[in-house]
Amino acid sequence: MSAQQDLRDAIRRLQAVGCENPRLDAELLLMHVWGMTRTQLIIKAHDELPNDIQHAFEKTISERCKRIPIAYITGEKEFWSRLFNVSPDVLIPRPETEHLIEALLKLYPDKQAPYHFADIGTGSGCIAITIALEYPNSTVIATDISEKSLNIAQHNAKKHHVENRIQFKQGDLYQALDASTTTFDAIISNPPYVSADEMYDLEQELHHEPAHALTDDADGLRLLRTLLHEAPQRLKENGYLLLETGLCGLPETPSSMTMLHSYHDLAGLLRGGIYQSKISD
Prior knowledge:
With 281 residues, this protein is an alpha/beta fold. The chain has nine helices and nine strands. Helix content is 33%, strand content 20%.
């Protein structure tokens, strides 16, 4: 049976279980197991699949039929045009989170300055590592409550050769930062913001991702409120807090912070807010 015929069969199976993009999914998985680009796959479309590739392809399609996200099957996901290793221990990086990087670059256009940044709830490390790469003279602290997440983040830091400029600390939000930690020019966070009620309506793929990285088990705003209210203690005067959010929206801004603006994605949906600490009297 040719590669094209194997693909057609895989597409039918993925359609039957409700995958949103069955053709794309099947092609990506075959490209992954065969080690080919899309162009190479087109050229080889009428070739017979080698037995080992056929068995590997069948295994990945069976996993995808269980609605396991492709990133967990392949073990990697692109973020800011770079590949990051992922596993079910970390949230899969998403294009929407790149808005945080875009916002930071607008706030701090001088990429050569020695800034101090913090990434709270780093997960795979994609935000902290991207910041370290974009600002080669910066220092970054990345925190997470999960030791398994931090292990993956550290692996990704080594992969992208920034392990010497990122400190990884375990703890819940700011609790991972000790009292002597330098205050930051900016704190960036993509915290769990899915409400407990929303968890029931998530697409099947999301139920394979770590729940602690998705939901605050409350109204979706609980961790966002903590990040906002405690930020002034961790920021330099006029420092910035960049937060990602979702359907829950954004909490009321405390008097110690100024909300500069919110930002939306290409679909017009609220995705986050940019805040600044106020100058002390």
